[in-house]
Amino acid sequence: MYIPAHTTHGVVLALHGSGRGIADYRTVPFYMKQLEISVNYGYAFAVLENGPDTYGTDDGVHNTDIAVKYLQNKFGTDRIIFWATSAGGACAFRYIIEHPNTISAVIGTFPVVDLKSAFTVLSSCRRAWHAENMTLEEYSKKIEHKNPADSIDRLSGIPMYIVHGRMDKAVPFESNSALLAKAGAVIHELKDGIHSTDDMRYYDTAPYMALKTDKYE
Q1: Tens digit of each residue's pLDDT (9 = 90 or more) over 115-146
Q2: Rounded to the nearest 5°, which phi and psi values hold at 109?
Q3: Which residue among 40, 119, 183, 199 has the highest number of C-beta atoms inside a 10 angstrom radius?
Q4: What are phi and psi of 76, to 5 degrees?
């Protein structure tokens, strides 16, 4: 956790991608940028070390709830903003659906929205859900009522600022971030963007729209 010296406007809680964790926000420039932007706008910054459960498993959502309540109590604020990267999107959106009116906004960096899409493409998702030997039909039953893509309408009303690459093959744009348009998300597309933590263009737009509001400048 990083607490800026000046008065905070709230807390940004980072939900990391698959295979990532707290250490990446100290050593990897792509993730360090999230901390830098948040603190520069006067927000405290925290990372939830969620392991593979960042894919929105039951344990992952439970861990997120513990983190949110802890941060609310510690800072005496209800202004908690999720910054969800890749697999962390599944956890963020499932949490919001199951805990409405708790999170103030979401920043999404090529986030997972559809767990079925992730299951099809990513072995890390299949492992996280202990579904390595399942068919898509079996997996669909396992995640019934747990897949954010099946409850997009329940995300309406929360400010969401998403950036995603059109050429992303790991987390395809159309089957993930594009779905959020139905819930009123502001979506910024990188036409040639891929699923890469080397492309700093992902920080050109969405984060600033989420953090710089009329009330919190």
Answers
A1: 999 999 999 999 999 999 999 999 999 999 99
A2: -110, 105
A3: 119
A4: 60, 40
Give Cβ neighbours of residue 11 (< 8 Å, ≥ 6 apart).
43, 44, 45, 46, 71, 75, 77, 79, 80, 81
Integer Cα distance of 79 and 104 in angstroms: 6
How far apart CA 209 and CA 207 sit, in angstroms, is 6
Q: Quick one: how many helices (H) and strands (E) in the chain?
A: 8, 6
- Residues 163-214: tens digit of each pLDDT: 999 999 999 999 999 999 999 999 999 999 999 999 999 998 777 777 875 4
Rounded distance between C-alpha atoms, residue 180 and residue 97, angstroms: 13
